[in-house]
Design a protein that fits this description.
Strand 1, helix 2 and strand 2 (41-44) form a beta-alpha-beta unit. 51% of the residues lie in helices and 10% in strands. Strands 1-2-3-4-5-6-7-8 form an 8-stranded parallel barrel, surrounded by 9 helices. It folds into 2 domains: 3-257, Aldolase class I (TIM Barrel), CATH 3.20.20; 265-344, Homeodomain-like (Arc Repressor Mutant, subunit A, Orthogonal Bundle). By secondary structure, it is an alpha/beta fold. The protein is elongated.
Length: 346
């Protein structure tokens, strides 16, 4: 999928649903059911592969195998052949001393991946070991350079960060999504025993997201835990804790927006009812047929024609009529002025 197309769809879904969902996957089954559940993007990462093997996400930080080689095989053999309509991102280990990053990115793009992310990320390592890695040249800046190069090549990019300094670097590199990683997921048999509190996480994310939006209003802000933002990217949430049916239901529960049913099984979706329902819930805000069409995976011209055929009126006229109806109700039942009513109905 083209980067501009992905961004257009993601911003439309944020506008309508309020958020997007990304699932870190390690198998074709995980990817398939997460996509069916409405995931907006799939991240092929080594942590996901190890979770499917019954190991902790941290296994991706040890020398058990070559990250980039394994993810290339996972993506080309298990994910890309069964996934359509959802962007699949390649989790690049940027510190690999035996790989030419530019050539790797070219191969990633030519094989059909929609973009890249920096995972495993050195940002999750601290202490003396991190100092030793930095001294040896294995720095976070290598990940920033990789994201910047991918951006220049037209790839969609997700930058994992843990603090404001890292976010600033990823933002400058052109990352389309800034994802604040708040640590490993608790819960289940392999869940983290030590984890960040909600208060601690909120303090970190508020600082980072505020800066990001001040610098680039178009950047999408997500987290690797569940808090208020424009998106959520989960790993264990979607592949370790649930199994087949639960994967589908868990992804749907995180997706849980007004048009969640439109993101999956669209052949059975009543587009007209979805459109009407959305207008009823959001008439006081900007309502665009193009956004609803993107989320329901149909063209705006098709939805417009279908809407007029089924209702006998155009989408615009239906919206105006609905707003006028709400205005009449407010004028009759409240003491609001005409100007106040106008603002209240959009």
């Amino acid at each position: 999928m083209d980067r501009q197309q992905i961004l257009k769809i993601l911003h439309a879904r944020i506008h309508i649903n309020g958020h997007i969902i990304g699932a870190c996957v390690g198998s074709g089954m995980t990817a398939k059911y997460a996509a069916m559940g409405g995931a907006d993007m799939l991240l092929a990462v080594m942590a996901g592969k190890y979770r499917i093997m019954g190991r902790s996400s941290l296994a991706s930080y040890f020398c058990y195998g070559n990250n980039n080689t394994s993810i290339m095989e996972l993506g080309t053999r298990e994910l890309l052949p069964v996934i359509t309509g959802v962007p699949v991102l390649f989790g690049v280990f940027a510190q690999d001393p035996f790989v030419d990053i530019h050539k790797l990115l070219m191969r990633i793009k030519s094989n059909g991946f929609s973009g890249v992310t920096n995972f495993p990320t050195i940002a999750l390592i601290d202490g003396q070991f991190r100092e030793a890695l930095d001294e040896d040249g294995n720095t976070f800046d290598k990940e920033v350079t990789m994201i910047g190069l991918a951006h220049q090549m037209g790839c969609f990019t997700v930058g994992f960060v843990t603090n404001l300094t890292e976010a600033m670097k990823m933002l400058a590199a052109g990352a389309d999504v800034i994802c604040v990683h708040l640590g490993l997921t608790r819960g289940g048999f392999l869940g983290a025993k030590n984890f960040m509190t909600i208060t601690e996480a909120k303090n970190i994310t508020d600082e980072i997201f505020s800066f990001c939006k001040q610098q680039r209003s178009d950047v999408i802000t997500t987290i690797y835990q569940n808090m208020q933002c424009e998106g959520y990217i989960g790993g264990s949430t979607f592949d370790r804790i649930p199994t087949e049916k639960a994967i589908l239901e868990a992804t749907k529960s995180f997706k849980n927006g007004e048009l969640n049913n439109a993101s999956s099984d669209t052949e059975h979706t009543d587009y007209i009812q979805i459109t009407k329902h959305y207008i009823e819930k959001n008439y006081m805000k900007e309502v665009r047929l193009e956004d609803i069409a993107l989320v329901t995976h149909v063209s705006s011209s098709y939805l417009s024609t279908l809407f007029k055929k089924k209702t006998g009126t155009t989408f615009t006229n239906y919206l105006i009529t609905f707003r006028i109806g709400q205005a009449k109700k407010l004028l009759k039942e409240t003491d609001l002025t005409c100007k106040e009513v106008a603002l209240n109905i959009g």
